[in-house]
Amino acid sequence: MGKTLLLTGHPGIGKTTIIRTIVAQVGNKAGGFYTEEILGPGGRKGFRLITLDGKETVIAHVDLRNPKAPAVGRYGVDVNALERVGVAALRRAIQEKKLVIVDEIGTMELYSRAFCDTVMQAILGPTPVLGTIMRHPHPESDVFKTLAQVTLWEVNRTTRDDLPNKVMAWLSKNTQQT
Q: How many whole angstroms separate alpha carbon 50 and alpha carbon 165?
């Protein structure tokens, strides 16, 4: 069975920072994606998805709002961009048997059935998965949190500085058994 470590915590607590630290350490042994904020005048304007092989796309933005697109808060969500770039990156990582990085399993991403199915495939597969997941209850994300293959760690001000080393130790243990 697969081995999955999901980091959860409040928005802005450092989950993606931990993911990026791990990605820098494991290099090309990982595939998948991370997300980052798009900042502009007046603050955050949206979110960009960046694959570990260098592709980028905007998955949510204030300028993407329209009645036909899903929305989270003030952001319109581009499900097609998520699937075309993000889900494709997850599938490549699974196929290449790399450490699967998925940052994040959140409300925006959960609008995509292909995303949910691919994350489930990764979790149930033989390759380790490292990801972040929304803290607040949500029917789709709660399913992932309760799977036997999933270990869930809380990121907070007390734990976040030590977590990169603990994650690397967890990965070392779980990749040796794969």
A: 23
Place of tokens 């972040």: 132
Q: 0.85 exceeded by the pTM?
A: yes
In contact, 102 and 129? CB cutoff 8 Å: yes
Alpha-carbon distance 176 to 123, whole Å?
17
Choose the CATH number for 4-173 among 3.40.50.10840, 3.40.50.880, 3.40.50.300, 1.20.120.160. 3.40.50.300
Residue 12, phi-psi category: left (phi > 0), alpha (psi -120 to 50), beta (remainder): left
> pLDDT digits over 26-56, tens only?
999 999 999 999 999 999 999 999 999 999 9
